[in-house]
């Protein structure tokens, strides 16, 4: 942890480490630093680091999304065949984020805070080897599915998944979370879908209090079709269940 003079000190057992250094909250012009690996011993060492200047700017479109999104940055490794979470930040009042990215391939996951827009994965893009601030523009999806969970309050912060029907079989989950009012949205391709809701608690709009207790169970809604430019506005009423029982032996079935 740095002091107000930007100095730091810590004890690390002998070994190999790397540090992640975050700029102060609200600081502009510098990005997060992930250091190269270094080795510690019982002898005190002085390791100085310099925060890199921001060279990457993600401008979201439409810009009226303003502060209402969080952008997750993933580094794409073609050699290792997977993506690695790198960083994330909330958009500012003009709908963008700035940070430092080393040269390489990346993609973004954009999570809007408003149901006017839908969760969006961008295409993979290449960050060049540059110290100059480079702007990339990414379009946030407009949803073609909007939904509401009832009863009021019990849909707050629920997990909402869409199952897609293919050859008369259900599968291929696409998931998001509802907001405190039980509203959710998706942008999906053509197909036949049904919602699966996992309730998590209750939001009392009068007292602004949230409880993680609920009498409702995982509920599957009715199927619907998205075709061409069509949209769907769906409503799911949570169920208290109509089947219950005990799985034995309980030591092996718990949390299964």
Describe the structure.
Strands 6, 7, 9, 10 and 11 form a five-stranded antiparallel beta sheet that branches. Strands 14, 15, 17, 20 and 21 form a five-stranded antiparallel beta sheet that branches. The longest helix is centred in the last third of the chain and has 4 residues, at 250-253. This protein has one helix and 22 strands. Helix content is 2%, strand content 43%.
What brief labels describe this structure?
256 residues; mainly beta; five-stranded antiparallel β-sheet; 22 strands; 2% helix; 43% strand; globular
Quick description:
The chain is mainly beta and 256 residues long. The chain contains one helix and 22 strands.
Element layout with pairings:
Blueprint: E1 15-17, E2 20-21, E3 33-34, E4 38-40, E5 56-61, E6 69-77, E7 82-90, E8 96-99, E9 104-112, E10 120-121, E11 125-127, E12 134-139, E13 145-150, E14 159-166, E15 169-177, E16 183-186, E17 191-198, E18 202-204, E19 209-211, E20 219-220, E21 224-226, E22 232-237, H1 250-253
Parallel strand pairs: 5-12, 13-22
Antiparallel strand pairs: 1-4, 2-3, 5-8, 6-7, 6-9, 9-10, 9-11, 13-16, 14-15, 14-17, 17-20, 17-21, 18-19
